[in-house]
Amino acid sequence: MTTRRFEWERPWLAQYQTDAIFCRERYGIIEASTKAGKTAGCLVWLFEQACINGAPGRSFWWVAPVYPQAEIAYSRMKRAVDRTLYKSNDTEKRLELPNGAALWFKTGEKPDNLYGEDVYAAVIDEASRVREESWHAIRSTLTATKGPARIIGNVKGRGNWFYHLARKAQRGAPGYHYAKITARDAVAAGILDAAEIEDARLALPESVFRELYEAEPGDLSGLVYKSFSVENYAADIEDAGGPLMVGMDFNVSPMTCVIGQRVVDQLHLFDEISVNDSNTEEMAREIRERYPDRPITVYPDPSGNSRKTSAPAGQTDFAILRSFGMTVRAPKAAPPVVDRINDVNALCKSAAGIRRLYVHPSRCHQLVTALENLPYKKDTSQPNEAATGPDGTQLVHITDALGYLVHTEFPIVIRQRMFAA
Fold it and tell me: Is the pTM of this model over 0.90?
């Protein structure tokens, strides 16, 4: 057998491209500005994967939302690589390298067509526009090979699988690497022109510009907690010891609570509990097992002062909490839903741009998911109680738990009086 060797010099890439794309983690998730070099960098990455790990019969995939976009990537790869290093099949959009590896450029329009192959590395381009079922299919093709993937795209709202996967990566999930590339990064690297970006900013609606050039969700209309963003993430939050604050919702399935501490005028949340088919006694016991011998103040739904959801018979929810050595603080009547929402939004980000709510993104992932995705009922000012997250859990209950705590300890009205004084 004749062995053919060749030298490959990686094209110049900006440092942010190298850091984002050539990471050690198996899954690289990249939210990026348009024309910032994410596609070019991933073409280089996929070619190198095929060169290093390729062999006869091994497939490496590029998957785009629709056929014309796959064709664009295919043509760019052909132009970028020395013509002597591949054989091309323009009908199948396939390049065969000297080591026998095949680079395929596919579309995610029909997810069922993606099942069956063993793939050794994959790129999903424009992922926010790719069907979630296509991601499921692509992930299945990487199972036998344990192949890596780079998943790249613009931000396109919060209600899609790519946005949720990016948040998972940003929370530090094992095996995932997250990167955000903005137009400002590309301007600083000399890839884009500052005047061109300013022209786009003046020409486009603000929400569109934010998504295409700043890699941020644009139109958040219809979402309850518009002020919450990744800037409220704080992975370095730790339990400092001492008194704990617990916001609690008495819904039975799931029964939820959020746990944190006041730090000067901020609320830091570092834990959450969500249990299906539970009751107040089970929830209180779980809290105590996690935090024995700690002063705990619970901020629950005020209805718990009269409702009885847990044995022993005759005890109210509040009485059960107190039996576990917890202090209960709640108003006599439930505050208006709109007030709780406004209080939480103001704590996430005030009109002055100050953020005073910080959440540990991995330990409080259900709360983060709910704050980012809970919508209003259509044409109302009430949260959609039927809305669920990717795992099917209702979003409203854990945000209610947070709202009871915030309304009692960080209400807007108190701050207004304090500032007026």
Answer: no
